[in-house]
Specification:
The chain is built from no helices and 8 strands. It has 117 residues and is mostly beta strands. An 8-stranded antiparallel β-barrel has the order 1-2-3-4-5-6-7-8.
């Protein structure tokens, strides 16, 4: 028997903080869930902004994958900086546990939680 779980769509402004050992980055993202692609993944479009004491960067989502609770976002900024964030979305679609280890903002990455405003 196959059993499914319903997830609410991702939509709106999500805010939170990514933290590493000695630093943190404030994150604000405007996300909209898209329909599925030929590979069976849903997509996400929007922007993700990082703000820390050493950096402010706005990224555009260049590609994404959303399958069940798993999310992956490839991000690119106007200055050529690129990074990948990934994590898990809760079933209500109002919280995203996120990790970013590429250091997309002045070499700083980390893990954290973004919540729907």
């Amino acid at each position: 028997m196959l059993t499914g779980v319903k997830f609410k769509p991702i939509a709106g402004v999500y805010v939170g903080t990514l933290a590493a050992r000695d630093s943190s980055i404030a994150v604000s993202s405007s996300l909209t869930q898209l329909s599925g692609n030929s590979a069976g993944f849903l997509g996400v479009k929007g922007t993700v902004s990082y703000t820390s004491s050493g950096c402010t960067e706005e990224f555009k989502i260049t590609s994404s994958q959303l399958a069940g609770r798993h999310i992956l976002l490839n991000l690119s900024a106007k200055d050529g900086t690129a990074t990948t964030v990934y994590g898990n979305v809760n079933r209500q679609g109002n919280q995203i546990d996120l990790a970013e280890y590429d250091g997309g903002c002045d070499g700083v990455g980390g893990v954290g939680v973004l919540s729907l405003e």
